[in-house]
């Protein structure tokens, strides 16, 4: 069972070695409306190397050990942007679990996020890794369905810092309620149409390749019915455990109207097998993923126009920027087919069309 919320796993993780060489972030994505216009937004709270914090943020791209709290926000599609605002870690009040972050002009917890960002001089500050623009927001959150990956984020493996990158989705289906003001235009975010998603990552480095796909705006292709209690989430790529890379390993959950299907490499007794291919054809980024676990097979085909996507930017704790082409979007669409193996034959049990999907893919540049 993966639908298990856990405030400790969703809490602040920068303890031990991670204080000087680690990152932690909480990610949110959702849909807002301005009259008939629909727009997908993202918000992230990112902390890196808190123990080396000075009285101002320090950046790897300026030759220093990076240390800051970063409020990242923006939108995809036409008029897309990625906005970054930085704060000294020492200026931010942090509560571990249930987590709370409180800064001069932002707030974040499991149930509420607020912030105000205005960037006007990004071209003269490449260390900011962002665009110019404005975004303010206040949103209540109701995290409805979780993807708790289980053993891979257990207390023992967290304490041992076994994985290079950890993942927990406290609200892979979440309801957001509030507003966003984006470049002067106000968007209303309503629970029933927010298509909301919330997760977190932490660790000492990132994975390469990096894959993420998720949506809860899903339609039953067989009868055209909108499925209001259905969500999927796929993440991973090439995780490292005690510095050993594991090729073609993804963590995946499919929740269909109350029933769970999981494809999780850390649960080895399920005999998980994964194949994936990601490529660009005619300005379209394509994901093809096939996963098998015991008696089920899931085939996922997703597409996203790269002109709608951003190259999302991060520094690693050592100060290097390993990703310059990490595609990130919120307008992906595609199809998921779930089969049950019966007498060595695949029997189709779910045929799902997906829209408004969060999507990510990239490999290290260096």
Commentary on this structure:
With 366 residues, the protein is mainly beta. It has one helix and 26 strands. It has one domain (16-362): AttH-like domain (AttH-like fold), CATH 2.40.370.10. Helices cover 2% and strands 56% of the residues. The strands form three sheets. Strands 1, 2, 3, 4, 5, 6, 7, 8, 9, 10, 11 and 12 form a twelve-stranded antiparallel beta sheet that branches. Strands 13, 14, 15, 16, 19, 20, 21, 22, 23, 24, 25 and 26 form a twelve-stranded antiparallel beta sheet that branches. A two-stranded antiparallel sheet has the order 17-18. A hairpin with a 2-residue loop joins strand 1 and strand 2. The two termini are 38 Å apart.
List the helices and strands and how they pair.
Elements: E1 23-34, E2 37-48, E3 68-75, E4 81-87, E5 93-95, E6 100-102, E7 106-109, E8 112-119, E9 133-147, H1 155-160, E10 165-182, E11 185-189, E12 196-203, E13 210-215, E14 217-220, E15 226-227, E16 230-237, E17 240-241, E18 244-245, E19 249-256, E20 259-264, E21 273-281, E22 284-293, E23 296-305, E24 310-311, E25 327-342, E26 345-362
Antiparallel strand pairs: 1-2, 1-12, 2-3, 3-4, 5-6, 6-7, 7-8, 8-9, 9-10, 10-11, 10-12, 13-16, 13-26, 14-15, 14-26, 16-19, 17-18, 19-20, 21-22, 22-23, 23-25, 24-25, 25-26
